[in-house]
Amino acid sequence: MGKIRLDLLLNAKGLAASREKARAMILAGEVRIDGHPVDKPGLRVEETADVTVESRRGKYVSRGGFKLQRAIEDFRIDFHGKVVLDVGASTGGYTDCALQNGARRVYALDVGYGQLDWSLRNDERVRVMERSNIRYITLNDLGEKVDIITMDVSFISTRLIFPVLYDLLQEDGEVISLIKPQFEAGKDKVGKKGVVRDPSVHREVLTQCIAAAAAANLVCVDISFSPIKGPQGNIEFFIHLKKRGEPIDNLAAKIAWIVSEAHRILED
Q1: Which domain holds residue 32?
Q2: Same domain, residue pair 92 and 218
Q3: In terms of domains, do 49 and 69 share one?
Q4: What is the distance, to the nearest Å, from the Cα of residue 185 to the centroid of all Cα atoms in its chain?
Q5: Distance, CA of 201 to chain centre
Q6: I want to staple 213 with a disulfide (CB 3.0 to 4.6 A). Which of 146, 157, 218, 232 is the partner?
Q7: Over the stretch 109-145, which tens digit does the pLDDT of each residue have?
Q8: Is 100 part of any domain?
Q9: Is residue 59 part of a domain?
């Protein structure tokens, strides 16, 4: 028996409904070989390898929690005892993840209403801020500066939001922002069903978003990508911003590498 890619093996064994599902499971840390966790979908393993899946699907109230968890691990951010502002909270995947990582308090902010999961709505550590647009939020609305801002927004560019964040953060504050290319790129660069597939557009979007953050006095210290594609199949990225921090050396090279890795892992 020969060797086979891990994502293909999961699909062949019926442990994942599709190759994309297999990749997501592997990147979410759900897959083990001979009892040891693996996180590389392209890893070549023996077809007879002992592969097991420990599902985390019930770990968070929505799949957003898995996205944020990967960013927390990639960026090595400590949430213990921190006050967090979750922008674009929706059903609360990020809020849930922040709490499970030790956050002391989370402001769950969203322009919508009635979306936040009931378990979080009734959690004394959560301050629900519905029907609230982050672009018009001030420090008075929160009553305190926050340590960490997480952001996952749709139908608006993050570049319009970055200028608001600086004044809401503590001096050593951090931002984890999901970048959705379909809401950042020009309409002429977005394909069918709102999907952006061109790596050059992904590079352009990241460059523009990081520049916009810098103009808002937020330094980009790291970049990563989501282990899970968006609902329509968009590859999404994370940027890690700080009020005080060292900018990435050779930013263009870092962006190019992250985009290349995202496409290699998620599009292979």
Answers
A1: 3-53
A2: yes
A3: no
A4: 18
A5: 19
A6: 218
A7: 999 999 999 999 999 999 999 999 999 999 999 999 9
A8: yes
A9: no
Beta strand extents in 11-136 (DSSP E only): 31-33, 36-37, 44-46, 51-53, 83-87, 105-109, 126-129
**15 and 106, same domain (yes or no):** no
How many Cα atoms sit within 13 Å of 45 on the Cβ side? 22
Say which CATH number the domain at 18 has: 3.10.290.10
Q: Which pLDDT belongs to residue 47? A: 85
**Residue 1: band (very low, low, confident or very high) from pLDDT cuts 50, 70, 90:** low
Average pLDDT taken over every residue of the chain? 91
Query: Residue 240 contacts by C-beta under 8 Å, 6 or more apart in sequence?
Result: 71, 75, 77, 174, 175, 176, 220, 221, 222, 223, 224
The domain tally of the chain equals 2
For the whole model, what pTM was predicted?
0.82
Residues 158 and 39 occupy one common structural domain? no
Q: How far apart are CA 195 and CA 158, in angstroms?
A: 18
pLDDT digits (tens, 9 = 90+) for 77-109: 999 999 999 999 999 999 999 999 999 999 999
Alpha-carbon gap, residue 4 to 42, rounded angstroms: 9
The answer to whether residues 181 and 255 belong to one domain is yes
